[in-house]
């Protein structure tokens, strides 16, 4: 067993996760070493994202952003939202009365990831939700 696998198994404390998630966390350890705060952040992220959606290069960049974050360089989260479409037979165009359920869910998740990042000890700016 490689030392990276040993470090990751130590972090997981016997918890079993999918091979894809395990391999993803191995990339984190290769990039920043055994950093529990960053491993916790990625473990949280893995709960919500689609497996395989985030390439290794993005994982490495995120590791560096998290590692270099500080009071002077706080994390800044943002999300881009498309306008809601009218639904129903014969309906077309954009809703003008409110945002849709997908946007509501996205805003909730954006807020949650900022809160979780703060709980893990990262300094964060206020999140931005951009509608375009």
Task: Outline the structure in words.
It is a single chain. With 132 residues, the chain is mainly α. It folds into 2 domains: 1-68; 72-132, no CATH class. 51% of the residues lie in helices and 6% in strands. The longest helix has 19 residues, at 101-119. It starts with a helix and ends with a strand. The model has no long low-confidence stretch (mean pLDDT 92).
Q: What are the salient characteristics of this protein?
A:
132 residues, mainly alpha, 2 domains, two-stranded parallel ribbon, 5 helices
The strand count comes to: 2
Classification by helices and strands: mainly alpha
* Overall mean pLDDT: 92
- The rounded Rg comes to 18 Å
Report low-confidence residues grouped into runs of 5 or more: none
Which range best describes the helical content: under 10%, 10-25%, 25-40%, 40-55%, 55-70% or over 70%?
A: 40-55%
């Amino acid at each position: 067993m490689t030392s990276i696998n040993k470090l990751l198994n130590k972090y997981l404390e016997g918890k079993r996760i999918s091979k894809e998630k395990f391999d993803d966390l191995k990339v984190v350890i290769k990039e920043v070493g055994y950093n529990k705060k960053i491993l916790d952040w990625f473990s949280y992220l893995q709960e919500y994202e689609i497996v395989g959606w985030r390439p290794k290069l993005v994982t490495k960049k995120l590791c560096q952003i998290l590692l270099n974050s500080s009071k002077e360089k706080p994390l800044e989260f943002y999300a881009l939202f498309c306008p809601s479409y009218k639904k129903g037979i014969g309906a077309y165009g954009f809703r003008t009365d409110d945002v849709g359920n997908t946007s509501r869910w996205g805003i909730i998740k954006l807020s949650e990831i900022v809160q979780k990042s703060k709980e893990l000890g990262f300094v964060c700016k206020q999140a931005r939700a951009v509608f375009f």
